[in-house]
Specification:
The complex is a heterodimer. Chain A is an all-alpha fold. Chain A has one domain (3-82). Chain A contains 4 helices and no strands. Chain B has helices at 3-14, 18-40, 43-60, 70-88, 121-124, 127-139, 143-154, 159-166, 170-192. The radius of gyration of chain B is 19 Å and the shape is elongated. The chains are: A mainly alpha, B mainly alpha. Chain A binds chain B through residues 1-2, 5-6, 9-10, 13-14, 17, 19, 36-37, 40-41, 43-45, 47-49, 51-53, 55-60, 64-65, 67-69, 71-73, 75-76, 79, and chain B through 18, 21-22, 25-26, 29-30, 33-34, 47, 50-51, 54-55, 58-59, 106-108, 112, 115-118, 121, 127, 130-131, 134, 138, 149, 153-154, 156, 159, 174, 177-178, 181-182, 184-185, 188-189, 192, 199-201, 203-204.
Chain lengths: 83, 204
């Protein structure tokens, strides 16, 4: 593997996160233009992160929510009775 | 929920308003449940751990000082419980990923192999199969990498928030996140890689 690629590989993750310093960012982008392997690495790493973010359940199942709320009420009652 | 809305609920909950506390739980618990489910790979265990988490939060709410978001605090309770349980009930043999990603290599190692262009995973697999495949790949990561990946990349925590939730340095979070990403990418490439297109060059 080319030394340049090895070095750039270390920066790809920060690049995906937009956390790469400006100067390094420019160097990386110049390198990416000429390096198909690093472009593949960047693309597949980005897709790895993205694909895991999809399809997220944003609400608790109703039955679980009710069970949890009931358990909380019981806990609060018990705490209040000790005061 | 905005920061201001969260702060208003925290203030009311501190004054003993149960509905306000429940509002905080309702907004953070789905994330905690997602994390627990993916860490344990067992829906019932995850739900049980979530119950324990929420009850611990009720008990310890006086100690919540508001230095982090409520969700970060709740998730850190959930992760501690999950890690303890996983340690006690180790049922799955994890692959030794240090063979794949040498500990000395910050983010290189052989995990960069197989540079093959990826297809759109949705074109290759049906949703259910895809979900199973992703979960299988994740389950083979050691817990310390899996947890960082889930918080950082799946739930969108910042490096700082992840470090706070896990009691790690930001450098450690970054290093683990990179290794997790490379390992998952390597694991998934045989499934998503375009078979007919080989890597350019041979040195990678």
């Amino acid at each position: 593997m080319a030394q340049d690629c090895k070095r750039m590989l270390g920066e790809l993750s920060d690049y995906i996160d937009n956390e790469l310093a400006d100067e390094l960012c420019e160097q990386l982008e110049v390198h990416l233009k000429d390096c198909p392997n690093c472009r593949i690495m960047l693309d597949s790493l980005t897709k790895t992160v993205r694909i895991y973010c999809e399809d997220k359940e944003e609400r608790l199942p109703e039955a679980l929510s009710q069970k949890l709320r009931a358990a909380c009420e019981k806990k609060w009652d018990s705490k209040d009775s000790k005061k | 929920m905005s920061k201001e809305q969260e702060q208003a609920l925290i203030d009311r909950a501190r004054g003993g308003d149960r509905d306000a506390f429940w509002g905080l739980v309702e907004s953070s618990a789905p994330m905690a449940l997602r994390l627990l489910t993916r860490l344990t790979r067992d829906k019932e265990r995850a739900e049980d751990l979530l119950s324990q988490t929420v009850l611990k939060a009720v008990d310890g709410f006086e100690k919540f000082r508001g230095e982090s978001q409520f969700s970060t605090w709740l998730v850190s309770i959930a992760l501690n419980l999950a890690r303890n349980e996983i340690r006690q009930n180790k049922t799955r043999q994890e692959i030794n990923w240090d063979d794949v990603i040498p500990a000395g290599a910050h983010n290189h190692g052989s995990a960069e192999a197989e540079l093959i262009e990826w297809q759109d995973p949705h074109e290759v697999f049906a949703q259910k199969e895809l979900r199973e495949l992703l979960d299988d790949a994740l389950a083979e990561l050691p817990v310390k990498y899996r947890t960082v990946f889930l918080l950082r990349d799946v739930e969108g925590f910042s490096t700082r928030e992840t470090a706070k939730a896990l009691g790690l340095s930001e450098t450690a979070v970054k290093s683990r996140a990179v290794r997790a990403r490379l390992a998952l990418r390597k694991h998934l490439t045989p499934y998503f890689g375009q078979k007919e297109e080989k890597a350019h060059g041979s040195g990678l």
